[in-house]
Design brief:
single chain, alpha+beta, HIT family, subunit A, about 30% helix, binds guanosine-5'-monophosphate
């Protein structure tokens, strides 16, 4: 059965899309730790990030870098934190989280629930800065 992220990538389940190329897809985390929290995923289903082949692993980081640069411009923050957890969804993904303090990337924190208009405004602001 397809993972929830494959169903998002195929368009079956809606998301706030940021960017994609032939191999990777980026979209807002539905329950962000901070405004502008983005997930970057390979289109090919792989549970564990470190099971990706060497070139896909390198390429997903380069793809994530481009997204991180856009988040930095769109969301007030000191830098973008990077995390790999993967305990909830068995489809490899990189969390990109705007940071102003160490606590902003504490996955034990309560997640935000933002209204759809605000999620779309954040996604649109990030997309605007993609180069
Ligand atoms: P992890 O597997 O790294 O522990 O966490 C999975 C992440 O995916 C969580 O931060 C969660 O909020 C996010 N997530 C789970 N289901 C969905 C979904 O249907 N849509 C989006 N956009 N994010 C999701």
């Amino acid at each position: 059965m397809a993972t929830i992220f494959s169903r998002i990538i195929s368009g079956e389940i809606p998301c706030y899309r940021i960017a994609e190329n032939e191999k990777f897809f980026a979209f807002l985390d539905i329950n962000p730790l901070a405004k502008g929290h983005v997930l970057v995923v390979p289109k090919k289903e792989t549970d564990y990030l470190f099971d990706l082949g060497d070139s896909d692993l390198s390429e997903i980081m380069v793809f994530a870098k481009r997204i991180a640069r856009a988040i930095e411009k769109a969301v007030p923050c000191k830098r973008i934190g990077v995390a790999v957890i993967g305990l909830e969804v068995p489809h490899a993904h990189i969390h990109l989280v705007p940071l102003n303090s160490m606590d902003d990337i504490n996955f034990s924190n309560p997640k935000l629930k933002l209204p759809p208009e605000e999620m779309e405004a954040i996604a649109s602001a990030i997309r605007k800065y993609l180069v």
